[in-house]
Specification:
144 residues
């Protein structure tokens, strides 16, 4: 906070302008100003660190968003939970866009937590597997 350090300098100038003769008082005021100056500097550093961290988090958030878009291959978003039915329709229409090269994974929408999950075929027994999210049993129809 540049402004804060500027104001400390201003106060320092004011105190010097008083031309205080009392050495003890002068010393106390000068100590107070030093402490203020250090605090202003510390706050300045903290603010810079916070700004950097915030920028970094925003970058990560953006990257993660792109990854999620690629991974789920849909514009599914957190606040779309209520539109699950629409989403389900999208899913059945978009079989061709199925993004995994690896055909060993089955995509399913969990009936309980409504999460889209990808399950290794090896874990599907008798067309059933556990939702990795909520542990509910999901039934699979084989779609080749
Ligand atoms: Zn689930």
């Amino acid at each position: 906070m540049y402004d804060m350090r500027l104001r400390v300098s201003y106060v320092k100038g004011l105190v010097e302008g008083l031309e205080i003769q009392d050495d003890k008082l002068k010393k106390v005021l000068s100590e107070i100003i030093d402490v203020l100056d250090e605090m202003a500097e510390a706050v300045d550093d903290l603010n810079m660190a916070i700004d950097e961290t915030q920028e970094y988090v925003e970058c990560i958030d953006e990257d993660l968003g792109e990854l999620e878009d690629d991974f789920y291959d849909t514009d599914y978003e957190d606040d779309d939970y209520d539109e699950f039915d629409d989403y389900e329709d999208d899913y059945y229409d978009s079989d061709d866009e199925y993004d995994f090269d690896d055909e060993d994974f089955l995509e399913a929408d969990c009936p309980k937590c409504h999460e889209t999950v990808y399950i290794d075929r090896d874990f599907v027994v008798d067309g059933k597997a556990e939702c990795p999210n909520c542990k509910t049993e999901i039934e699979f129809e084989e779609r080749e």
